[in-house]
Structures are given as C-alpha cells and as structure tokens.
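Anyone up for a design puzzle?
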C-alpha cells in the first residue's frame, strides 16, 4: 500500500477561494474543530499547536485540516497495514519551482502527463512520482523505498518545507486518541 499527501494539501482553497476558506480568527478555527467530535479544550490545544510561528488563522486552518484529512489517514493506515504484515509506504509531495504542493498537484505525475509550461524542477518531481507509483505497482525493487514499520517513515518528492517523517510523527502525536471518520 502506498499512501501520500501534499505538504500544502489545503493550499488550493487558500489561493483560490480565500473569501470562503478564511476563518478570520483562531476562535473560529477552534469552534470548527470542536464540531469534529473533539472536546473544546482539546480543540484549543490542537489549534494552539498549529498556531505556532506566527501563522494567520487561515494558515492554521489549512495546516490542521491537511493533517486531519490527509496526514492522519495516510499515517494511521500505513502503520496499521504494516502491523498486519503488509507492505506499506508513505510519500510526501512537496512544491517544485512553479508548482505548489496543493491537493491534486501530483496528478500529472500519477497519470504520466506533462503540465504545459512546467519547470524542469516540476518535470523532475512529476517523473519521480510516476516512477515511485510504477515501481510500487509492479513490485520493482531496484530503487528501495523506506518501508513503514512501527513509525511513519516517509519518502518525499519536491521540496517539502519540513522533514516529512517528523511531520507525520508530530501529527500522530498531536491527534492521538482523536478518531477520524
């Protein structure tokens, strides 16, 4: 099983639908998180963790939603699959020159197409994504990939703004005990 996320999965909504996506305040983000079957005090703890480093409310909402919607299912699924004896891999897709790491930006690479006007760095990212998927699907092991065992070891493509295994681990720790439907 190969699971992945983009380092800025919710970025498309920030860039293209800011008026509707921006919560304007951290209290509004906390209110939203508290509707996810999470106590208000725990929701506040989660929001506070994402609010580090001077992030704006919209950046906090985007980061925590990316982890809740994409990082948690990917990491938890990979860990469960590995624990059951399966072959599990995690991948983090980062930005490349001229190409953000929004949800779906890996599609060109996944389907073997080229985005018109893509940069050389984007072409390299897309080719690596394609090769990783093909290697995994065909069982090719000439380019070993890190396997998930008892921790969410991850490979990356592009230029994620953080160390990817540490990001998955931090998300798992922060959201521990919180079910995600």
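Challenge accepted. My sequence:
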């Amino acid at each position: 099983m190969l699971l992945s996320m983009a380092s800025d999965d919710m970025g498309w909504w920030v860039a293209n639908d800011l008026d509707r996506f921006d919560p304007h305040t951290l209290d509004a983000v906390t209110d939203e998180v508290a509707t996810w079957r999470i106590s208000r005090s725990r929701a506040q703890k989660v929001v506070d963790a994402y609010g580090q480093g001077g992030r704006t409310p919209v950046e906090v909402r985007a980061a925590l939603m990316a982890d809740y919607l994409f990082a948690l299912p990917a990491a938890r699924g990979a860990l469960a699959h590995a624990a059951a004896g399966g072959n599990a891999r995690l991948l983090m897709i980062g930005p490349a020159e001229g190409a953000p790491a929004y949800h779906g930006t890996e599609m060109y690479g996944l389907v073997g197409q080229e985005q018109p006007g893509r940069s050389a760095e984007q072409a390299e990212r897309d080719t690596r994504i394609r090769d990783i998927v093909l290697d995994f699907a065909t069982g090719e092991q000439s380019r070993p990939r890190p396997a998930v065992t008892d921790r969410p070891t991850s490979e990356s493509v592009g230029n994620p703004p953080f160390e990817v295994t540490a990001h998955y681990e931090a998300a798992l720790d922060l959201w521990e005990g919180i079910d995600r439907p």
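A detail worth pointing out: The mean pLDDT is 93.
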